[in-house]
Design goal:
There is one protein chain. The chain has about 375 residues and is an alpha+beta fold. It is about 30% helix and about 30% strand. It has helices spanning about 20-25, 50-60, 60-65, 65-70, 95-110, 145-155, 160-170, 175-185, 190-205, 210-220, 225-230, 280-285, and strands at about 1-5, 5-10, 35, 45, 50, 80-85, 90-95, 130-135, 135-145, 230-235, 240-245, 250-265, 270, 300, 305-310, 315-325, 330, 340-350, 350-355, 360, 370-380. The two termini are about 20 Å apart.
Length: about 375
């Protein structure tokens, strides 16, 4: 197996302290948002044999196993991350596989450069994702029922929100959510900025269930995404709890440290809380206008001690082992590729001793015995 040397991405929303604290390193003073583990071309992990992307390209069947190559092609189908949010990420949705393929083909045909700021589909893949909290972790996930949102907005006492309240109460769920989000994203910018300012002041004054949205408005004053965020469920995960984000589900991470895994894609449609391009017509085509519970996941334990976070897709499978002192070694050998990440204690994986934040890549079929005292996350695929 290969010890991984991983890149930390300094996105502006990142916490300057959370990842250094986990790694036991000194903060640089700059934001450290995400540490990438995998073979994504944007920042592939490094090994003693070269980058993980180069290692896999040299012999995909040996590294990934025949079943994974047959199912997903000659590339690692997932990207594993440590994610440390110190400020809200952009409010966004991801396309399903058919939408991604069609969108990518259309933009390729029209000659939209891959690095163009208005490009929506950087690749032809979908981007389901799962985030598991290592600390308390705040996020937004999915639409709240329209009647509940109408009551929440009405309670702010902001006159310019009344048209949204009326729409939410007057129409069936799909139509109500679609009409309100469309109205928010197509409103006159000056009028919207005033409404957001009044809404933010009211959220700040009232606190309680409004407090998360006051915090969002502090980071993004005047942004219509603040009102869009008020349509969504606020979720606070406790350590070990997780959220699965499927296609078309609007979401944003607000604060906290977690382990995130996703299909290997960059396809994002933004709907606010960002200075980046917002393609309103395409966004409205992709969003699933359905209200519901955000669906907090807790791991399902198996007899061998593996705790699995069940998801409905095959590009990744995330689980963890909480290894008590004196426990017997676990044989984690699989016919699929794995990344093993330690997040607490000290775990021995083969010949490698892993402290928090350290990881290894295990080629398909290679012996993978782990022991020690701590917490180990295991990322692989389902074939």
């Amino acid at each position: 197996m290969d010890r991984l040397d991983n890149t930390v991405r300094p996105y502006a929303w990142g916490s300057p302290t959370a990842i250094p604290a986990l790694l036991g390193t000194e903060p640089t003073g700059e934001p450290q948002a995400e540490m990438w583990m995998g073979a994504h071309p944007g920042a592939p992990s490094r090994t003693a044999r070269g980058t993980l992307a180069d290692v896999i390209d040299a012999d995909p069947e040996r590294e990934l196993g025949p079943a994974s190559v047959a199912r997903f092609g000659p590339r690692l189908p997932f990207l594993l991350k440590l994610l440390a949010a110190g400020a809200p990420l952009s409010l966004q949705v991801h396309p399903d596989l058919a939408q991604a393929r069609a969108g990518h083909e259309d933009e390729e045909r029209r000659g939209v450069p891959l690095d163009a700021p208005h490009r929506n589909y950087k690749d032809a893949n979908h981007k389901p994702e799962l985030v598991c909290a290592l600390t308390e972790f705040d996020g937004l996930c999915g639409f709240r029922p329209p009647a509940e949102t109408a009551d929440l907005l009405d309670g702010l006492g902001v006159a310019s929100l009344k048209p949204y309240v009326d729409l939410l109460r007057a129409h069936p769920e799909d139509a109500a959510l679609r009409e309100v989000l469309t109205a928010i994203l197509t409103a006159d910018p000056e009028e919207m900025s005033r409404t957001v300012a009044e809404t933010a002041a009211a959220c700040d004054r009232l606190g309680g269930p409004y407090a998360p949205y006051a915090g969002i408005a502090h980071h993004y004053p005047g942004d219509p995404g603040v009102l869009a965020a008020l349509l969504l469920n606020h979720v606070r995960l406790q350590p070990g709890e997780a959220l699965y984000l499927g296609a078309g589900i609007p979401h944003a991470y607000l604060d906290g440290l977690g382990v995130e895994i996703m299909a290997n894609s960059d396809n994002v449609l933004r709907c606010g809380l960002t200075p980046k391009h917002v393609d309103v017509p395409e966004l409205l085509r992709i969003v699933r206008f359905e209200a519901g519970d955000p669906g907090v996941l807790r791991p399902e334990a198996s007899p061998d001690g593996e705790e699995v976070y069940a998801t409905p897709i095959d590009e990744f499978r995330l689980s963890r082992y909480v290894l008590p002192e004196g426990a017997a070694a676990h044989d984690l050998t699989l016919p699929t590729p794995q990344i093993l990440l330690c997040t607490a204690g000290t775990v021995r994986a083969g010949d490698h001793e892993l402290s928090p934040g350290r990881s290894v890549f295990v080629p398909a079929g290679e012996k993978a015995e782990v022991s020690g005292t701590g917490t180990l996350f295991r990322a692989t695929v389902r074939v």
